[in-house]
Amino acid sequence: MKAKIGALSIVAIALIAIFMMIDAGGNWDYVLPRRAKKILAIILTGCIIAFSTMIFQTITNNRILTPSIIGLDSLYMFIQTFVIFVFGSTHFTLMNNNVNFLISTGGMVLFAGLLYKFLFKREGQNIYFLLLVGLILGTLFSSLSTFMQVLIDPNEFLVVQDRMFASFNNVKTDLLITSFVLVIAIMIYFWRYIKYLDVLSLGRDQAINLGIPYDFVIKRFLVVIAILVSIATALVGPITFLGLLVANLAHQFMKTYQHKYLLVGSSLISVIALVGGLLIVERVLAFSTTLSVIVNFIGGVYFIYLLLKENKA
After folding, report:
1. pTM of the entire structure?
2. What is the pLDDT of residues 58-111, one digit of tens each?
3. DSSP structure string for the chain
């Protein structure tokens, strides 16, 4: 297992080195700081998405689900559209990335907290009921966003449209320090619960029989997932299929149930996919398309493959 982690680490480091040095032309003072910020944002985003999706699939015991199913991505777009609809695109909540980041993250975490509080208030509510309610609310947010987008000025809609798709060439690097501080704080908090993941992957009944405080632990995992998804979405925008792709590839490549290896492996695969994909988009395709389009296309095809595979099983 350590050999596989080592191999993924070597590939990831090699791709990062190529990304940093290719076509620099000797202008290291100009090129390196800018590329370093970009690569840090990509590494952070890739690790967050892989990490949150792996945890989400473990607690739902389903490998074709991602956190976006509970409506977090739709809520992000609803918040952005609502602010533009009410205040306009020149309001300081949109012009200042840090304020916008705090509002978006706060709104998504508050939504997740209320959703879990009401649904887990009564005994016997399982996580699939939570997913169903999240799916319905996500559809509601998406419909409300579309309604407001139809009514706003076309110039304002261009601002909304810019936030609808993930962009790794326009990463909000001024949020890097805030994001890193938040992620480190979450990792310190999360560390005490990581030991439960291997048992939770057995399912709810088995976890309870083995003495896991199931509802207590699940609530904390879901709040952690909400914060991580909020950070990733605020940095680059919504990207749907990356988590699904890298989490399942990690399961197939690592072939283990131990999450200490799966979490590291999926994070490395995510970094390889993003940095390698960005190199292809910039150096081979000459920006004729975006990385998010390629990721969503490959992820969508892989999703259909997983559905067909599960149907045959």
Report:
1. 0.83
2. 888 877 778 877 777 788 888 888 888 888 777 666 667 777 778 877 887 788
3. -HHHHHHHHHHHHHHHHHHHHTT-TT-HHHHHHHHHHHHHHHHHHHHHHHHHHHHHHHHHT-TT--GGGGTHHHHHHHHHHHHHHHH-TTSHHHH-HHHHHHHHHHHHHHHHHHHHHHHTSSTT--HHHHHHHHHHHHHHHHHHHHHHHHHS-HHHHHHHHHTTS--SSS--GGGHHHHHHHHHHHHHHHGGGGGGHHHHTT-HHHHHHTT--HHHHHHHHHHHHHHHHHHHHHHH----SHHHHHHHHHHHHH----HHHHHHHHHHHHHHHHHHHHHIIIIISTTSS-HHHHHHHHHHHHHHHHHHHHHH-
